[in-house]
Amino acid sequence: MRDDLERLLERLIHASVAERVAISVAALFAAILVGGVLVFVSGGFASCRAGLDLAGVTFCYNPIQVYYELFLGSLGHPLEGDWSPMNYSLATTLRQTTLLIFAGLSVAVAFRAGLFNIGTQGQLVIGGLLTAVTVLFAASYVPGGFVGTVLLIPIGVLAGAVGGGLYGAIPGALKAYAGANEVITTIMLNFIAAGVASTLLSWRFQDPDSANPQTRAIPEYAEIPNVPVVGFSGRMDFSLLALGFAVALMIGIAWLLARTSFGYELRTSGIQPKAAAYGGVDEKRMTVASMTLSGALGGIAGAFWVLMEHGRWLENVPALGFDGIAVSILAGNNPLGVGAAAFLFGVLSSGSNAINTATDVPPELVGVLSGLIILFVAMPEFFRMMGRRYADVGGPERTRSTGGEADD
Fold first, then answer.
1. Rounded to the nearest 5°, which phi and psi values hold at 365?
2. Under a CB-based contact definition with an 8 Å cutoff, are residues 131 and 306 in contact?
3. pLDDT for res 98
4. Distance CA 288, CA 166 (A)
5. DSSP 3-state helix, strand, coil percentages of the chain (rounded to 5)?
6. CA atoms 63, 65, 69, 72: torsion sign
7. Quick check: 234 and 309 in contact, CB under 8 A?
8. In 3D, which of 337, 390, 355 has the Cα closest to residue 24?
């Protein structure tokens, strides 16, 4: 039995990209099947006026309708005749995808360096607040209109990257020079970030005209604009320019890791730290640099959350950083795979809203369906990552954490 499991794990560890994609697709269909059965059975315990009667029991929920809304509702029902590619549901899906690309890249970079960055959420909070404050301050010295847009958006994104990067450097330095476990420090820094941001908001940056905990709104011309003619409505809080930047950054990070000396040192320090040190890589410097880059990407996520979605910083920051962990694992810590994983999360988020609107299925059950899909699709990749470190079939210890990958 153990030999069979080891052979299976070895096959999973050394699976090609095509095989891993096939496994993920098969896992997705398995999750849909299990979730469909769960929805159908749950409908037998619900009360409804009409449903499917079987053996004297009325089943209220239709799994086919539920999955129709989950996957097609998130795109605005493209099979219906009056569908428009600029609909609100698709905008919601792509907005979530855009933000999760940044968060997923943040986690993936740290994982590839052999580090667990559980603190992307805190880096996102700090980066978002610094973006809002910096743009509000700079707007007093920058002309409005097109010139203001061209100047303030890069300033805001840069401020978010700097804030998130500096906050990410803290656990990196603690790991490198004090031996502190980055999992513990990043988790603690998440709470510290929320507390510090809330304190700064109430002390200095609170919007005096609002009872809600939020900053003043940034100028409208400082928000990320829509693409003329083919863009989404401004009321949808999504811009194709933001998505384009996220995709370009995703490709840029993939190139950085694969084609530069910095990327080589980062990956080598994660895969074989002793060999990297023997080859002249400064492990401490690389630890700080990796966490700084990871934090900067988290800060950019916060910047786009402010500049694209809300036009201000709010205390109630969504858990994008924590979702980024699942996105990165689902993508196998591959920067190019982060886009597809983020899109799946965007579909599940927007589709869940469509289910709640179009059916009587309770939100708790919808959450279970989304969780099943994420669990089924992510677990093969998770076992593959863990197998690289712990399984004998993976050879001697090749990583210092589950983040290191020899090849993708």
1. -70, -35
2. yes
3. 97
4. 10
5. 70, 0, 25
6. positive
7. no
8. 337
Ranges of each domain in the chain? 2-78+87-394
**What is the predicted pLDDT for the residue at 219?**
95
| Continuous H helices in 179-282 | 182-200, 240-259, 261-271, 273-278
Burial class of residue 322, CB neighbours in 10 A (0-12, 13-18, 19+): middle
CATH 1.10.3470 is held by the domain 2-78+87-394: yes
pLDDT tens for each residue of 221-275: 999 998 876 788 878 899 999 999 999 999 999 999 999 999 989 988 877 777 7
Nearest to 122 by CA among 302, 343, 371: 302
Encode pLDDT of 150-186 as tens digits: 999 999 999 999 999 999 999 999 999 999 999 999 9
Q: How many angstroms separate the CA atoms of 370 and 330, rounded?
A: 14
Q: Side-chain half-sphere of 396: how many Cα atoms within 13 Å?
A: 4
On the question of pLDDT at 405 being above 60, the answer is no
Alpha helices by DSSP H, listed for 72-144, are 88-112, 120-138
- The helices-and-strands tally (H runs, E runs) of the chain is 14, 2
**Mean pLDDT for the chain?**
89
Helix (H) or strand (E) holding 53: strand 52-54
Distances (CA, A) of 203 to 136, 190, 198, 210: 16, 20, 9, 15
The CA distance from 45 to 52, in Å, is 13
Tell whether the model's pLDDT for residue 52 goes beyond 90: no
What is the percentage of the chain residues whose pLDDT exceeds 70? Answer: 92
The SS3 assignment for 59 reads strand
Which residue reads 């996102």 in tokens?
124
CA–centroid distance for 174 within its chain: 25
Residues 6+ apart with CB under 8 A from 7: 393
pLDDT band at 278 (very low <50, low <70, confident <90, very high): confident
Confidence (pLDDT) at 402: 42
Q: Report whether 256 contacts 112 (CB < 8 A).
A: no
Degrees (nearest 5) of the Cα angle 362, 323, 269? 155
Among the residues of 260-405, which ranges form H helices? 261-271, 273-278, 283-304, 320-330, 335-358, 363-390
Instruction: Tell me phi and psi for residue 27, to 5 degrees.
Output: -65, -35
